[in-house]
Amino acid sequence: MTDHILVAYDGSPLSERALTYAIETFSDASITTIYVINPIDSVIDVEAGGLPVAEDWYDNAKERATRHHTTATDLAADRNTELDTVTEVGKPARAILEYADEHNIDQIVMGSHGRSGIDRTLLGSVAEKVTRRARIPVTIIS
Question: What is the pTM of this model?
Fold first, then answer.
């Protein structure tokens, strides 16, 4: 029986589809969404001029996480479902897997971002890493 579902949620359309799938498929389960703040993203943002001050990256990332949690909570409420939200810091695949292991998660649901070519080679695929390393079932939504 699937009692606790972890949905990787980053605010993308695929993560919204993953959350909708989890709500509709596992209606009796507890659902937690996880948003991972990746410090590597701060370097990219600063280099691209996306952040006015490098030291503000964490505050900006926390604000982004809060916005995504609000959107996920609202999406669930529209479907008469309550969920828990959590924010972790680190490499996304590792953070998702560690959270699942530490919190007795029965299944992970996440979107596939469909990276290919050089992006996949350089950055890897979070969905692929989670799928290969998870000790529990993983559902990938595309």
Answer: 0.87
